[in-house]
Structure formats: structure tokens, C-alpha cells
């Protein structure tokens, strides 16, 4: 019972302080996808941190992973960034060719990093 509370509290803390650990995730993404543009999307991008369940990132790249390997890629990115299960981050991939459509679908977004 208490263990669950500790994990939940840690998860909430990590969410509130997402800006402190997100750079590690972005670096891992850029290591994997050299051409990536990384956007913050979802409730945090809308400024609704209290309603957020996770940090949503949209990664635009010329070579997005296929759906069947997307999960493994996401796990590798999280491992490389040294995230724990209490760091809730959801990574969505899309092809740069549909950038406008992907950003329109996201509605609220903020560019966090663009490849050099």
C-alpha cells in the first residue's frame, strides 16, 4: 500500500518537474534520429500540467519507426535517458512530410529541439 503511494507521488513529482529531465530524453531521441524535430504536445503544451498524465512528445523525422518497432525504440530512448517507470513520457513519431498535418492534429505544441 505505502509502496504504491511512494511510486505515485514520485510519478506526480516527475510530471511537475518534467522540464528538469526532458533534455535527457531529447538527447536520446536526437542520438537515434539525427534529423529529428521534437515537439511538446498534449496537456502540458496546453499549460494544463494539473491534468497531465504524461509528457507527450511528437518526433518528426524522415525515417519514423514502423508501428511494430516503435515500442522497442521508445523503450531504448527511455533507457538511454535513464528514466524510471515513474517518468511518464509518451513518444509519438511522424514523418516530416506530414509535419503540418501532425502539428495541426496536436493543436497545441511547442518546439523543444530541432536537429542542427
Describe this structure in words.
The chain has 116 residues and is α+β, with helices and mostly antiparallel strands. It has one domain: Beta Polymerase, domain 2 (2-Layer Sandwich), CATH 3.30.460.10. It has helices at 2-16, 18-32, 42-45, 67-80, 99-106; strands spanning 37-41, 55-61, 89-95, 109-114. The protein has a four-stranded mixed β-sheet, sandwiched between helices. α4 links the parallel β2 and β3.
H-E string: HHEHEHEHE
Strand content: 15-25%
Spatial shape? globular
- By DSSP (H or I, 4+ residues per run), the number of helices equals 5
Chain-averaged pLDDT = 92
Helical fraction: 40-55%
List the uncertain runs. Answer: none
- Strand order across the largest sheet: 3-2-1-4
Count of the separate structural domains = 1
Largest sheet: 4 strands, mixed
The CATH homology group name: Beta Polymerase, domain 2
Q: Using only CA atoms, what is the Rg?
A: 14 Å
Q: Number of DSSP strands?
A: 4
Specify the CATH class.
Answer: Alpha Beta
Architecture (CATH level 2) name: 2-Layer Sandwich
Briefly note the structural class of the backbone: alpha+beta
- What CATH calls the topology is Beta Polymerase, domain 2
| N-to-C span | 47 Å
List its salient traits:
alpha+beta; single chain; 4 strands; four-stranded mixed sheet; 116 residues; Beta Polymerase, domain 2
Amino acid at each position: 500500500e505505502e509502496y504504491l503511494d511512494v511510486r505515485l507521488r514520485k510519478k506526480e513529482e516527475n510530471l511537475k518537474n518534467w522540464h528538469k529531465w526532458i533534455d535527457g530524453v531529447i538527447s536520446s531521441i536526437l542520438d537515434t534520429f539525427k534529423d529529428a524535430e521534437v515537439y511538446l504536445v498534449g496537456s502540458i503544451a496546453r499549460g494544463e500540467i494539473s491534468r497531465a498524465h504524461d509528457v507527450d512528445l511528437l518526433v518528426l523525422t524522415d525515417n519514423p519507426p514502423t508501428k511494430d518497432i516503435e515500442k522497442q525504440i521508445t523503450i531504448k530512448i527511455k533507457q538511454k535517458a535513464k528514466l524510471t517507470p515513474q517518468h511518464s513520457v509518451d513518444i509519438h513519431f511522424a514523418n516530416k512530410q506530414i509535419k503540418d498535418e501532425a502539428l495541426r492534429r496536436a493543436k497545441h505544441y511547442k518546439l523543444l529541439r530541432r536537429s542542427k
